[in-house]
Amino acid sequence: MCGIAGLISLRHDLPTREDAVNRMVQRQQHRGPDDRGLHSDGPATLGMCRLAIIDPANGHQPMTSPDGRFTLVFNGAIYNYRALRTELALGGWDFRTHCDTEVLLAAYALHGAACLPRLRGMFAFAVWDAREQVLFAARDPLGIKPLYYARLPDAGLLFASELNALLASGTVAREIDPTSAGEYLAWFSVPAPRTIYRGIASLPPGHQLTVDAAGRVQTGPWWHLPAPTRPDIAANYHDFVGGLRAQMDDSVRAHRVADVPVGAFLSGGMDSTAIVGLMARSGAAKLKTFSLIFGEAAFSEQASARLAAQAFGTEHHEELITGARVAADLPRLLAAFDQPTGDGINTYYASQAARRGGVTVALSGLGGDELFGGYPSFRDLPRLHRLLPLWRRLPDGMRRAIVEQLRARPTVRARKLADFLTHARDLHELASLQRRVLPETVRLSLLAPEARAQAGRLGPNHPQLEDFAFELPGADPFQIISAWELRTYMADVLLRDSDVFSMANSLELRVPFVDRPLLEWLWPQRSWFKYDPRRPKRALADATADLVPAAIRNRRKQGFALPFAHWMLAELRPFLDETFSTASLGACPWLQAAEVQQVWTDYKTRRDTRAWSRVWTLAVLIAFANRKSA
Hints:
This protein is an alpha+beta fold and 630 residues long. The protein contains 28 helices and 17 strands. The strands form 3 sheets. A 6-stranded antiparallel sheet has the order 2-3-1-9-8-10. A 6-stranded antiparallel sheet has the order 4-5-6-7-11-12, covered by helices on one side.
């Protein structure tokens, strides 16, 4: 796991390029405190900082091929590197190390971009070809590791693992994009390829990028979701469960590959418990597990986590999180953000506990909900989809009256239903609206006129609606909803925040459910094998029934969240009062100050705990805009 950076430009001299890249690497030092390096050739300068996981004594980057043609910087882990190493050695590569970095370098040197489908892991990497004077970069299929880039005004390209690093280069401006701010208010994040800053892009998951010495940039996908069906699906549920267990065993074994201590997050829910159980069964010795606990009993899964830890014999660590602690840590937390987010603080504290507890790598259960129907969207959206034709037959006046009544209600659920009925025509559009944070009428009211006009032109649906819909011809309803959860909320919120907040603590976080071979096997299987609306995650529970205690398999899902609804009216209130002040809102000319302040006033007055995430999302955006530096 590393932080990578680079600058490709004919118009910047060598000292200027190396100074800019060194600043980017230094800004990302928390991502890789064990080593750092720099390499320049022609118009290219590449840099990195390394968190040594595999073959710690070797693997220095940037790494150059023996003939001097290819130089690689790489962030992530290639889990099948040993098998690939054997193949590449037979193909003529003389290995000098035992690390996955050299395997990736050899794979690209021998096969170019065609090596990408062979890689199992999480990665964002860049390779400079000294002979062709071309940079090639790519990101893993599902977006576990990030890659940001900016086209320079005088022809060239800048890239890094974090937006804060790009800003630290001194070559791009720190200017919030009002359009991105509007999208953030809709989605809890800024959907790729846009970022919160003007002129800086996020390479989408499963995409590749090339740039030549003249600064010409091309991007495009190298991976797509699998075809909806294929001939080798399981014949019956029993065979499916057996196949699923084999796939999960294989994924956990692959994700345990490391030459440093490996632990796991253990919330006490089904997903993390299954991962820990599979780790224990695969022979993980002295396994350390980590969970967060709260004084507010309704939010704590302490009993379930302890039950799982006892069942698997782990060395279990609990971290108490209080509102006072979060309030004291807010400056540090906000500094770690490279984009505003309404989520992720729980990952920061879990990662901090794991690093302090003596592990460098931790496995997480993230991704189980998206694969096995753990969210209400899998139940609710098909029902609503079946009703849409009836809804469309109602007279226009009646539909408008019903929508206005729904919008007048104070509940979040009613207002979301109003958006569904107003804007959705099919299941894709329902799914695209599912993860909206603020109702469209409320979001538009919070934006200043110019930003509101642009948001109105873009419309309420997710910006990737057409791309995702065209990628999924013939998909069944479960696949459509799963795809939307994977490609939006998981990629743009959960995985992004997991990367930012784990790396802020120099921890490599791995996600065995977000595994390309597992997904490609699971994707075409019959939907009723994967999901039972009467018993969500039945397939996962049945596949791990010999491991996961019955009390955990049979308990209702409890989301992994912090008690913000309570803290915002107590320990976090001074921060929020300051954030929603007129002075603070002066840094946000793309917001309507009076409307924004009314949101906070209403929350304090009505004390609607269900609305906390909307208020917090807005507060984080304002606080982010007021940061003095990156």
